[in-house]
Design brief:
Layout: E1 2-5, E2 8-11, H1 18-25, H2 28-31, H3 44-56, E3 62-67, E4 70-79, E5 87-94, H4 103-118, E6 123-129, H5 133-141, E7 145-156, E8 159-169
Parallel strand pairs: 5-6
Antiparallel strand pairs: 1-2, 2-3, 3-4, 4-5, 6-8, 7-8
């Protein structure tokens, strides 16, 4: 898969991406805003294990956000099951040197459009830790709506915090 967006793109992961993933993912300011399964420190072994999982997905659901020089972040969706089978959770991250450039917003918007165009899904949603207003703003600018607050619903870094739920539905 490939979605071209000016000077960067969303694409399938390829051999050779591990080094760039480690370069940008090994950052506490990124990991603090993601689930614990996104490790810190983020090692070469972590990147290789992630790439092996991404390459084994059927259908593919995790992708690179990349510049011409390599991976600068990641984006993906995880389909739900049972009565939630027409919904998927979206997740994303961008390396700190690329923050504040609108890359995450454009990626989330374009990726959501692609998901709705290529799958039968009718709803995408994201959970945002209460302390991460920048991610909430990305979602809002990408067409997601704040649906609610889940009070004291997660524990991260030893703190029990709220998370915000954002959703976007197929037009």
């Amino acid at each position: 898969m490939r979605i071209d967006l000016d000077e960067w793109c969303i694409r399938s992961f390829v051999a050779g991406d591990a080094e760039a993933i480690v370069q940008h993912a090994n950052n506490r300011r990124i990991s603090i805003n993601l689930r614990d399964r996104f490790p810190y420190p983020y090692t070469r072994a972590d990147a290789e294990a992630f790439l092996n999982l991404a390459w084994a997905q059927q259908p593919e659901s995790d992708f690179a956000i990349a510049s011409p020089s390599g991976v600068i972040g990641g984006i993906g969706f995880h389909r739900q099951t049972d009565v939630y089978r027409l919904s998927a959770e979206i997740g994303y991250w961008v390396g700190e040197p690329f923050w504040g450039r609108g890359i995450a917003t454009r990626a989330v918007r374009a990726f959501g459009d692609w998901v709705f165009a290529t799958t039968p899904l009718v709803r995408l949603y994201a959970h945002v830790f209460d302390w991460n207003p920048a991610s909430a703003r990305v979602l809002e600018k990408a067409g997601f709506t704040l649906e609610g607050r889940m009070r004291r619903s997660v524990i991260k870094d030893g703190k029990i915090i709220d998370q915000l739920v954002y959703g976007r539905v197929r037009p």
